[in-house]
Design brief:
Helix content of chain B: 25-40%
CATH class of one domain in chain B: Alpha Beta
Largest interface: A-B, 33 and 56 residues
Number of strands of chain B: 11
CATH superfamily of one domain in chain B: HypD, alpha/beta domain 1
Distance between the termini of chain B: 33 Å
Distance between the termini of chain A: 40 Å
Shape of chain A: elongated
Shape of chain B: globular
Order of helices and strands of chain A: EEEEEH
Order of helices and strands of chain B: HHEHEHEHEHEHEHEHHEHEHEEHHHH
Strand order of the largest sheet of chain A: 3-2-1-4-5
Radius of gyration of chain A: 16 Å
Largest sheet of chain A: 5 strands, antiparallel
Largest sheet of chain B: 5 strands, parallel
Radius of gyration of chain B: 21 Å
Structural class of chain B: alpha/beta
Oligomer: heterodimer
Number of helices of chain A: 1
Bound molecules: iron/sulfur cluster
Chain lengths: 75, 362
């Protein structure tokens, strides 16, 4: 039940935003808990955006993985 | 988003699996525990256990917020429903067994029980039908509690109240460390709970219990990476708190959500199905929001319910002591179509996740 799904913010109107879950699945979600802008990816859980996801951080994760895996190799 | 594709990359998964094989200890056993139904889903669905060395085991702890709601709190909802109050809840809550009946069974005999996707939907319903009383059964861990807080602090109509059954994850993790022969060697902490609470609440695990703890996301690569990171700590003889999921989990968590939770709730002791009472593990509405507390408003209070039916081993499944297929009823007397225990009811219950996988393989 803690499943949360990334979605792209298409428009914002007060505490409500219209988000795109991909493949044209649009839904209205509550954005009170986050500071999201149009174009951001948010993580949606039970109708509420609970965090803004950043592409930068996603890329950082990947480089972190490569680093960790590489450092493991040297040992 | 390209994210999914990248984080499901089978090549990357294979590389990590190889690294896991290399770094795993040659002797002895390593037991890693996660506490999230979604992690169990990823592990089972993608067959990740088959990629791990024989002596590295990943077990599922109490990660299903629906499964651990005690029967007494379902009984409270059923009592309210019988009084003619409209009960609103998430779909998973509907079939959770109470002592005598579930909300679904109450609905079958005429109670007004409605499934909602979000708590705000329940509030909207209450506004549209001012002549009826509405109660929302607020189930969920820290991922879900903020949405209850948003509504509790918002503009609520007078005919709306909450039956709060929110629970907190870190106290349950601490409990697992005290279970005699469970002997956990590392924690995979739940990414979406952590998106809210951040890293701090886990600090005690490496510090006090010398327990490697890695906050992880939900793609196969995330989970494998967390296993690798825990094994790496073992090989170094270290216990650290690490964040594998920085694309979602900030060290401080979601400050706005935490602030709203703090404004709406106080932390108190709470009963967990199959576990018993855990101190500081439950939320209740603050005194100032008492008028929205269904227990206060309607004077309903069930102290003790019948949590586990005879023969059901949910209490052992919930703390990771046995696997679902070690329960004699699994897929025999107890199936997703005719669930016996709470762990088979919720889509995130360990028995249910395993059942789905058995069905897929068959
Ligand atoms: S398989 Fe059914 S009866 Fe057995 S522990 Fe799971 S929920 Fe309980």
């Amino acid at each position: 039940m803690c499943l949360a799904i990334p979605a792209k913010v298409m428009s914002i109107d007060g505490i409500k935003a219209n988000v795109d879950f991909g493949q044209g699945v649009l839904r209205e979600v509550n954005v009170t808990l986050v500071d999201a802008k149009v174009g951001d990816y948010v993580l949606v859980h039970a109708g509420y955006a609970i965090q803004v996801m950043e592409e930068k951080e996603a890329l950082e994760t990947l480089s972190l993985w490569n680093e960790i895996l590489a450092s493991g190799q040297q040992e | 988003m390209t994210e999914k594709l990248r984080f499901r990359n089978p090549e990357l998964a294979k590389t990590i699996a190889t690294k896991i094989q290399e770094i795993a200890p040659k002797k002895g056993k390593i037991k890693i525990c996660h506490v999230c139904g979604t992690h169990e889903w990823t592990i089972t669905h993608f067959g990740l256990r088959s990629l791990l060395p024989k002596n590295v085991e990943v077990i599922a702890g109490p990660g299903c917020p629906v499964c651990i709601v005690p029967a007494a709190e379902i009984d409270e909802a059923v009592q309210l429903a019988k009084k003619g109050i409209v009960i609103t809840c998430f779909g998973d809550v509907l079939r959770v067994p109470g002592s005598e009946t579930s909300l679904l069974e109450a609905k079958a005999v005429g109670a007004d029980v409605r499934v909602v996707y979000a708590v705000s939907d329940a509030v909207e319903m209450a506004k549209k039908e001012p002549d009826k009383q509405f109660v929302f059964s607020a189930v969920g861990f820290e991922t879900t509690a903020p949405s209850t807080a948003v509504e509790a602090l918002g503009d609520l109509p007078g005919n709306f109240s909450f039956l709060v059954s929110h629970r907190l994850i870190p106290p349950a993790m601490e409990l697992l460390l005290g279970v005699g022969d469970l002997e956990i060697d590392g924690f995979i902490a739940p990414g979406h709970v952590s998106a809210i609470i951040g890293l701090k609440p886990y600090e005690l695990f490496p510090r006090v219990y010398r327990m490697p703890t890695v906050v992880a996301g939900f793609e196969p690569v995330d989970v494998l990476m967390a296993v690798y990171m825990i094994l790496k700590q073992h090989s170094e003889g270290k216990a650290r708190l690490e964040n594998e999921y920085p694309r979602v989990v900030k060290p401080e968590g979601n400050l706005k959500a935490l602030e709203m939770m703090d404004k709406a709730f106080t932390v108190t002791g709470g009963n967990w199905r199959g576990i018993g009472r855990l101190p500081d593990s439950a939320l209740q509405l603050r005194e100032s929001l008492k008028q929205f507390d269904a227990r206060e408003k309607f004077g309903v209070h069930v102290e003790q319910g019948k949590d586990i039916l005879l023969g059901c081993e949910c209490h052992l499944v919930i703390i990771g002591k046995i696997k679902p297929d070690e329960c004699p009823m699994f897929m025999k007397a107890c199936t997703p179509a005719k669930p016996v225990g709470a762990c088979m009811v919720s889509s995130e219950g360990t028995c249910r996740v395993w059942a789905k996988n058995v069905a897929v393989q068959a």
